[in-house]
Amino acid sequence: MPKTQFAVEMGMGTDLKGQDYTKAACRAVDDALHRNFLSVAPAFGFPHEAMIVDIRVGVGQPDLVDLEAVRARAPVGTVSAQAVQGGLDVEMRGGVTIVANAIVSVSFDVEKES
Question: Which of 8, 10, 36, 40 is least surrounded by Cβ atoms within 10 Å, i.e. has the fewest?
Answer without folding.
Answer: 36
